[in-house]
């Protein structure tokens, strides 16, 4: 029987997110957080960021115990997407605030999703860590640093300054807007393709 892989689940997820009535402003892939210590498979940009970590049939589900310490600091909401062979283990080791989605391969060969539990607010989220996922050029455009001399500040210091002077909701909204703006053009280095292109590829 065909194994349901990370790649197949990811392509189906990109289409699924793009078709939702509350579709995200942008969808990012291979999103680095915590100075590259973890790389999120897919991040949906709403008013807050929603991280999706994918574990296919042949992946090691136990890796999320290591990844969670970084994702929990960088994302307000996190959902694990996995397959039936990993579900029992996923329920026992995924943090309680993580959502869990089950990916299945239908008899027609398409990937379907079923919610096992919804993601809830992440109590370990640190806005200053999330902000460091932005480029320095994006951070200096935040209103709270517009009138502050930041020439000698590194990215971490600027992020901490913003986090100490802004509410979490304002930070989340501004962070999402910065990433959506970054994702609006294909010409910027390292920028993922907009989900609409993946949808065309999937439906071709």
What does this structure look like?
The structure is a single chain. This protein is an alpha/beta fold and 204 residues long. Helices cover 37% and strands 21% of the residues. The chain contains 8 helices and 6 strands, in the order αβββαβαββααααα. The chain has a 6-stranded mixed β-sheet with strand order 1-2-3-4-5-6, with helices on both faces. Strand 3, helix 2 and strand 4 form a beta-alpha-beta unit. Helix 1 packs across helix 8.
Total of helices = 8
Distance between the termini: 24 Å
Report on the biggest sheet.
6 strands, mixed
Question: What string gives the helices and strands in order?
Answer: HEEEHEHEEHHHHH
Task: Please give the share of residues in helix.
Answer: 25-40%
Regions with little confidence, pLDDT below 50 for 5+ residues: 186-204
How many strands?
A: 6
Radius of gyration computed on alpha carbons: 18 Å
Give the integer mean of the pLDDT values: 87
Strand content: 15-25%
Keywords:
8 helices, alpha/beta, single chain, 6 strands
Secondary-structure map:
Blueprint: H1 6-19, E1 26-33, E2 38-45, E3 49-55, H2 64-74, E4 77-82, H3 87-93, E5 99-105, E6 111-117, H4 127-131, H5 136-139, H6 155-165, H7 168-182, H8 195-203
Parallel strand pairs: 3-4, 4-5
Antiparallel strand pairs: 1-2, 2-3, 5-6
Short account of what is shown:
The protein is an alpha/beta fold and 204 residues long.
């Amino acid at each position: 029987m065909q194994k349901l892989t990370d790649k197949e689940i990811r392509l189906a997820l990109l289409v699924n997110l793009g078709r939702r009535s509350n579709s995200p402003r942008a969808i990012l892939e291979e999103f680095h957080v915590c100075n590259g210590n973890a790389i999120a498979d897919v991040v949906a940009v709403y008013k807050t960021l929603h991280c999706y970590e994918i574990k296919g049939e042949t992946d090691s589900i136990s890796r999320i115990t290591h990844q969670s310490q970084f994702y929990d600091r960088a994302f307000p909401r996190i959902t694990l997407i996995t397959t039936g062979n990993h579900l029992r283990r996923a329920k026992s080791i995924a943090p309680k605030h993580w959502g869990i989605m089950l990916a299945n391969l239908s008899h027609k060969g398409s990937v379907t999703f079923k919610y096992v539990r919804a993601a809830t607010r992440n109590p370990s989220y640190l806005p200053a860590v999330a902000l460091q996922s932005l480029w320095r050029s994006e951070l200096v455009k935040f209103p709270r640093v517009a009138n502050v001399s930041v020439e000698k500040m590194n990215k971490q210091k600027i992020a901490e300054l913003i986090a100490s002077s802004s509410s979490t909701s304002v930070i989340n909204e501004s962070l999402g807007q910065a990433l959506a703006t970054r994702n609006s053009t294909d010409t910027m280095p390292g920028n993922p393709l907009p989900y609409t292109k993946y949808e065309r590829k999937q439906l071709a």
